Amino acid sequence: MQKFRDVLSRWEARRISALEAAEMLGMSERSFRRYRGRYEEEGLDGLLDRRLGRTSARAVPADEIEWLLDQYRSRHMGWTVKHFHDYLRSQCGFKWGYTWTKTQLHTAGLVVRAPRRGAHRRKRTRRPCVGMMLHQSLPARRRGTAARMTGSRVSRRWI
């Protein structure tokens, strides 16, 4: 807020332009004009972020979260999240998504996260094929043996 007032006073004294003031504050020129108008009308309170403290319009009501957790605790303990979610969608008219359901059950500690799996594919050394340059495909420890096998120069070896 202090920085805004300093930049605004420099702008009012005509030492900097609105574009320069906006760049100093890290915003567009249009945003600077909006902030200036709100500051003139409402003072420092006009500069506060108006989104803070509000709940999202898309947020799930707390009573529905509690209902979901109660359903799992009382009747469906031990079910997988997928089966539980499918049951809720088909039998109870549940409208929230699977990932949201899983997150709520994880947060409440009712379901344990699955352990991480290993790498899908492991890197392995490639087998030399006809036309392949050996110095690019073979590891350093095997390059000398390939040169002896083919009898060619070490710098450009082809099989």
Description:
The protein is mainly alpha-helical and 159 residues long. It folds into three domains: 2-47; 62-108; 125-159, no CATH class. The chain has eight helices and no strands. It has helices at 2-12, 18-25, 29-42, 62-74, 81-91, 98-108, 134-137, 143-150. It starts with a helix and ends in a 9-residue tail after the last helix. The mean pLDDT is 81.
Number of helices: 8
Q: Total strand count, please?
A: 0
**Main beta sheet, described?**
none
- Could you say which structural class the secondary elements and strand pairing correspond to? mainly alpha
pLDDT averaged over residues: 81
N→C terminal distance:
71 Å
Brief overview:
The chain has 159 residues and is mostly helical. 50% of the residues lie in helices and 0% in strands. It is flat, with a radius of gyration of 33 Å.
Write the layout of secondary structure elements.
Layout: H1 2-12, H2 18-25, H3 29-42, H4 62-74, H5 81-91, H6 98-108, H7 134-137, H8 143-150
Keywords for this structure?
8 helices; 0% strand; mainly alpha; 159 residues
